[in-house]
Every structure is written in structure tokens, then in C-alpha cells.
Design brief:
Length: 177
């Protein structure tokens, strides 16, 4: 599904621009028209949209991240269908960079920075595990560090991309209901 600036999804999400693209989809900056809230909209790419396995993976990603209410997990607000039938998910819009990008820039992190990042990652993963969700694809590209407006300090860390996560028995089954 190729979207362009000004396209409207389900009568409420306006496409503002493209943020990035990956193997499975494209992420757009969007605006919830009624709330005036900036969001990120992730779509599934053309032939992936016709693959039952890819569609199931995309839905699993949305449900898994949406089931975990924790500051170190990206928030998913909605899952919908574009006019062409392709799935999209609506997430919080983050400003910053991935851990992968940070490591490309700096190669080595100081001990305090590494501890701050890993501590937040562990907190998010712990919440996921309590909800019965195992991420299974944790890598620097799936760890996002929110920008603290020019500060050199490590910002809030968010775990992204629950596309190949696995749902196991939750410690608290009501979290998956």
C-alpha cells in the first residue's frame, strides 16, 4: 500500500509524510484528525499484505505491543484497514533514534549510558514477560531512544517491533484479555 501526504485512513488518520521503510512495511507520520494528535502509522507492504503469514505477523505485533502498558514499550493505539484492504497500525510518534543508529554514530557507549539503556530495556521486557509475551527479535534496530531535546543524557528507551513475538501463558491472564 503506497500512501501519500493528505490520504485519510478510516476517516480519522491523515498521512503527513513518510518516516521510514523496512522489509515488511512503511511507517508514516500521521495526524488523528479529531484529536489533533500526532501519531505514527505503520503499513504492511504490497505482496506482504496478501500473505496470510505476514498479515498474521502484523496483527500479532499490534496485539502484543497493544497488550503491554509500560513506558518502555511502544504504545499501539489502533489497528485498521486501508481502502485497498491492507492493514495498518497506529502507534505513538517517537522522536529520537534507534540504539543501532546511536551505535553507528558513537561505536562505544559509556558504562553509565549502557546501564541506563539496558535497565530500561529489562524493565520493558519484564512487563512483556509478565503479560506472557516474548519479543524474540531484540536487536539495536528495535530499541528506540527518545530524544531529550538536545540533552546528552540517555532518554526514555522504547522497545519496538513485536512482529515475531510469541504469546505464552501470562503471569496475569487478564493482561491478554
Amino acid at each position: 500500500m503506497a500512501l501519500k501526504r493528505g490520504d485519510i485512513l478510516e476517516g480519522k488518520y491523515e498521512i503527513v509524510g513518510q518516516l521510514g521503510a523496512g522489509a515488511m512495511g512503511v511507517v508514516y507520520a500521521g495526524l488523528h484528525k479529531k484529536l489533533g494528535k500526532k501519531v505514527a502509522i505503520k503499513t504492511i507492504l504490497g505482496q506482504m499484505a496478501t500473505s496470510a503469514d505476514s498479515v498474521a505477523r502484523f496483527e500479532r505485533e499490534a496485539r502484543a505491543a497493544g497488550a503491554i502498558d509500560h513506558p518502555n514499550i511502544v504504545k499501539v493505539f489502533d489497528l485498521g484497514k486501508a481502502p485497498d484492504g491492507a492493514l495498518f497500525m497506529v502507534m505513538e510518534l517517537l522522536t529520537g533514534k534507534t540504539l543501532g543508529d546511536l551505535l553507528d554514530e558513537r561505536e562505544v557507549l559509556g558504562p553509565d549510558e549502557a546501564v541506563a539503556i539496558v535497565g530500561q530495556m529489562l524493565s520493558g521486557l519484564s512487563a512483556a514477560h509478565r503479560a506472557g509475551i516474548v519479543h524474540r527479535d531484540l536487536k539495536p534496530a528495535n530499541v528506540f531512544i527518545v530524544d531529550l531535546s538536545g540533552s546528552e543524557e540517555i532518554g526514555l528507551v522504547k522497545i519496538l517491533d513485536f512482529g515475531i513475538s510469541k504469546v505464552v501463558e501470562a503471569a496475569d491472564p487478564t493482561l491478554l484479555a
